[in-house]
Amino acid sequence: MLTKTACLFGLSAISTVNAVQYGYNHVPVRPDPALIAANFKDVDIELLSPAFGGDRQSGFKNGTQGPTSHEDMGMSPCIIEESDLLMTTESFMERVAADNDYMTYHTANFTSEEFRSFPYVKLSTTKGRSRSNKLRLFVQASVHGNEPAGDESILALLGKFDNDPEWATKMLKDTDIVIMPRYNPDGNYYFQRILASGLDPNRDHIKLARQQTRDIKKFFSEFAPHVAIDMHEYGASSRYGNYVQAADGLFSAAKNLNINQDIRELSEELFAKNIGEDMVKAGLRWEPYVTGSTNSTPGYVPKFDEAGSDVKIGRNAMGVTQCVTFLIEMRGIGLADQEFQRRTAAGLTMASSIIETTANNAEKVLETVEGGIKDFVESKDPIVITDYTEFSTREFEMIDATNGSVVKVPVQFASTTPTTANLTRSRPESYLIPVAWSSLAERLEVSGLEVKTLDKPWSGTVEAFNVTSAELSRSYYEGVVLATITTETKEKEIKLPAGSFLVSTRQKNAGLAFAALEPENIDSYASVNIIPLNVGDEYPIFRVME
Length: 546
Hints:
Signal peptide: 1-19
Subcellular location: Secreted
CATH architecture of the largest domain: 3-Layer(aba) Sandwich
Organism: Fusarium venenatum
Number of helices: 14
């Protein structure tokens, strides 16, 4: 049975065959023709961010730079030539933070692969440590460096807070917010999707191949938000028969079934509903986030997969920490500076909607998320290893490229709201990791899991896996050769030396352990060949059932 995640992987794998160089991996600019562009006029939304209040970088017009430089946004220059600096005397983020007592400008204690800094702003009316009953909300953007409406809309969000004290006071009464506009500053500098090292940062949330990913993961885990937002852009020029996407914004909650059901339902029934309504009120169009193969053959029926459940991707990696998480996508990749006001306004509208929903329903959100965490930690339900979806017909709002009209088009749609569990397994009480595999324990700790180092030898009965099949892919995917693993389980007695590791599943981030340590999962350490396996091997991670 073809799973949702398998479909998404297939699409991702196809995209990796494009050759890359060190830096400046620009995508072709494909501007909207007049017929299509007529549907994306400016909207009446004020944007108080650097790109709309001053000069833009010269390369923005031809798709080789974003509008706002590293320094103008508020990032201190590191290894950057003096000639590259535009206006560094007063950064936007520092200035806005300095003007508001509830904002604090920070620079993270880690850097990018090319030593660029990570500025962020914390918004809180609570001095010192946050009250235990306040909601924590985390906002990140520009995971992919060539998606400028993401970070610009978040800068506009800071501008909105700065410009509307009454709104800010209401939003922050019961919430603390951390805003990190640029997750991938090297990608922003080169105006490319990938990290300086060439890997996609949004496919590194389980294998943690890059130090930058680990540093941000630890930063996120320490803040431990109740609500998280991840801002992106999607490709504007993709053709599906005679049609292109009409949506100003696509969005998706985290879909992994190991997220507590109450949290998932809150995400879909309250947050997603409000995002859609707020987009319509703003005069903007929206649809659920989907991927699909392009085909310009007239009469082609689009076939769309809704956002998948794979934990290697940011939305689900954040979601399985048991928080409300949303992927937000604005139409824009490949447009350069075309329609940028509307693109940024769409991002601001969706991000503001999530913040307003959080603040206006603070008690409900806090009770649901905290209660969901408790229920998840105590749950005796089976865990979900793989899942699948099925296609049905659904109408999707699109633009007829032959005449520019916005129409409802019947498409084949694989809904993941929710997915259907395929392979499930009894939840272990803990996982045992031999001391020789200490690198796995380190990865789990970076992901916010508590890992106990055993000070004495361990002996007892465990559930172990024998590998029954192991099939390697024929090409690299994000620096690894993927493996598809099947296993059979058995009980056995084992002895492990002192220094081995015990990972309890009775903790809120245990969903990350399920994804990483259950070998059949599409993102497991076995699947990404961190743990290489052959048929007949015993998997070196053990499940303690009692």
